[in-house]
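#structure-requests
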Amino acid sequence: MSNPEKEALNFDSALTQLQQVVKSLEGGELSLEDSLKAFEKGVALSRACQAQLAAADQKVELLVRGAEPGASPELAAFGGGADESRKTKT
């Protein structure tokens, strides 16, 4: 799966495709080569879902922290990673 395909794929679509891949692998009807291709696609879809969940988790965490009395919400760039944003918060 190329980068533009990953970027264009929303979470729900990726999850639906991942479920289809799992179902086809569990069916046992695929050849070894097709099973490996399906597994590779499933891993890529799983990683895409995990990345989107991590980004959403970080955003929620930052918004909740900003909801404390007297605090203003501050969003950090997702590319910096969760550890980077935590270091800047006091």
